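We now fix the convention by which a protein and its fold are recorded. Think of the row as the fold of the chain written in a discrete alphabet. Here is one such record, which you should read through line by line.
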Amino acid sequence: MAWYDEAVFYHIYPLGLAGAPAENPYGEPVHRLNTLIPWITHCREIGCNALYIGPLFESVGHGYETTDYKKLDSRLGDNEDLKAFVKACHENGVRVIFDGVFNHVGRDFFAFQDVKKNRENSAYRDWFCNVNFWGNNEYNDGFSYDNWGGYNLLVKLNQRNPAVRDYICDVIRFWVREFDVDGIRLDAADVLDFEFMRALRSVANEVKPEFWLMGEVIHGDYTRWVNEGTLHSVTNYHLHKALYSGHNDHNYFEIAHTVTRLYGMGGNRPDGLKLYNFVDNHDVERIYTKLNNKAHYAPVHVLLYTLPGVPSVYYGSEFGIEGKKEKFSDASLRPALSLDDYKNALKDNACTKLIWALGHIRQASKALSYGDYQQLLLTNRQYAFSRNTQDETAIITVNNDDSDYVMTVPCGSNTEFYGMLSGQNVSAVNGSICINVKANSGEIWLTNAEKLFVADPAETDAASVPESETMCTEHDAAVKENAAESSQEAVQENAAESSHVAAGESGEAERSHAAAGENAEAESSHAAAEENAEAKSSHAAAEENKAAGSAEDEAYGAVNRAIEDAFERGRIAGLQEAILAIMEKNGNVTDRMRQDVYDNVYHDSLINWVKSFR
């Protein structure tokens, strides 16, 4: 177990947050990095224990055209400022990783300047890719060269040159020696040479125990980069896309399919792939901007913090700020912010309260860091899964519908669960828990309730609470109302009615989106079959208990009947959704055909109908 296995990251783009000018005048250092020190405390207060900050080193403009790897950008200060900043992070229990921009350099980099000056006679002519002294470029250098992304501002390094490799390895050693950094995020890792990355991994193993290498990779088989020879982790852009589009399209099939594929990519093991999960960063639009329904902010972040991987929050998104990508500038994604403007956020801002609670829950639960992944329930608008270790089980339930939904999910041998966001206790009946998931929300159900501490962040000094304790809060008015309904009886009494509302009133909207899921018909049929198997098992257990005639079973008889009734309604609606999804994908569905599906409320008949499509 390494520190990054239990990390919750906070991501800062320092030039933007500190309000640095867009172009570097290369003047005297301006100590803007010091103004970011209060953000370290903020980072810790909202439950983050690691910081990804960058780019940091001397550059021309946005920071990714490095001109000096061993000097803090003068717009941010000097090297002593960076030393002090990292030290302050460590004193607050926060690990730090820097941006390592090793694929390309800026034109003011010393080696490139030497090529400009000495041309063919430069000792550094082979430090760059395909330097052609018979060519030219828009800068009228009298030669051409390979660049990154079509921009000659970014000169492509020749990573296969041993001298370049040695130089970058020495840079990493320098960063550890001078600044005590804990890891590096490799920019543009998907275009880095693999032998070059192996050399970086060798240095990582040398410089510091548990020194973490995380790479920026957009698409592909992540195991090409994440293995014992190259990187520890990469950016999870697959999940990033699924999290926002899966909510915008009311299509949890997309999210579940992505998670299953990534989990399988890692060998279906909890330690197989520890990907860097995020919903926004300095290159993509803010999650609050991307969501069509802003209420989906809650279930999106519940998933971010509970799915396999390492969660990360981009600065400002914990306040629910917006940011739209522009054609020629990413400035709106990288704004200057002042903590003073958000000093009451823990009391007044529902987004901040939620992130605060999720951060502390994540750090308190070993299951969320080390547990396996098992899908428990899946529809277009509802999704449940578990994360299990030997000592703890976490069940996560999310709902992207505008109506509440009564959900029955298997819970193994566990008997008691505690809702970390709602403060609600729930008891298992016949190996399952029946819960009411509020509209556009989510919940984390943990088994170790006796170890947990519940408080409102507005009334608690978050920084003073030990890491072993979890502090929870109502993240919005709906969840706060749910917290008051703390008895399992209240949920059970309303189970049938709530299930009818979820399956009836919102059923039409669910069906209209069913075809949007990739392979929705197969996934829906599979989900329906699993629900049927669970229901049969639950019914058999109930019949056996009734035959025994125990006093305890008599006491629970009425409860069981209410749960079974709610479950029956839900599984019938689920089968109807599966059939309509297949029919709509195969062609036009008339009102008469749709009504025929609604009129069929017989379980075995619906199952045979589903099978007939195969």
